[in-house]
Design brief:
GO molecular function: DNA binding
CATH architecture of the largest domain: Orthogonal Bundle
Protein name: DNA-binding transcriptional regulator, AcrR family
Strand order of the largest sheet: 1-4
Number of domains: 2
CATH class of the largest domain: Mainly Alpha
Organism: Cellulomonas marina
Helix content: over 70%
Keywords: DNA-binding
DNA-binding region: 36-55
Number of helices: 13
Amino acid sequence: MPDEERGAALRRRLLDAALRLVEEAGGLAVTADTLALDAVVREAGVARTSVYREWSGREAFYVDLLRELAGPGWQGPSPYDEDAVLLARRVVAGRLRDLGTAEGRSAVLEELVRRAALVDYQGLVRSVQWRSWVAVVAAVQHLPRAADRVRVERVLRASEAALVEHMAAMWAGLGVVLGRRLRPHVRGWATVATAAASVVEGFGVRRLLSPDSSDRVVVVDGPDGPQEWHLVALTMLSVVEGLTEPVPDYDPDVALADYLVHLAEREAVR
């Protein structure tokens, strides 16, 4: 194996070992001071001197680890829990008859958000990847070299852009089938995606500090009687309704056909 390929394989082995240790630690212990290089070397099964053949020192290795943690390879395609996405689709599929009236579509939207937003939030707070992302955002501000900060921030921004694009497509599809369009002052479904993610992630950060206050449930009168709403879901509904409005002259058959095409196109690019 050429030296260049051998060096790349060694770097990958060490970074993968570090990622496993971060995952075992729960994702939040990502600082240069807490990074135990000896533990990384043991996990990777290589000699300690090999680290210094590929990196100039501990700090350089740490910066590359932050870039790995910030990137889509570690973070995944979306902060949305896949169970939440599938649940949202099941809610729509199970209430197709309700799409024929404005009141029915509003009820489907409420039920979808009430259930899926909670599942999404619960998946987020369990996610080691999300907790590591929080740690990276905090850690990058304390990197001593401006060039290193720029390198990590560039990866963070790229990951964020990919996440927003993924989420915007999801909300656009739901808008089609539920007869919702953007209000005139809203510039694109990316705005809805960003606002919705901010709700879930904001509650997630607050839960790190105060689980009791973040996991409150309120009872709201629903079409079939009182319903329990987690605060994250109730806030999400306010955001979605505030940024979108009903589509006039909605045709449920056309909307459903367009929605199925949208889903097929999204699956094709996964």
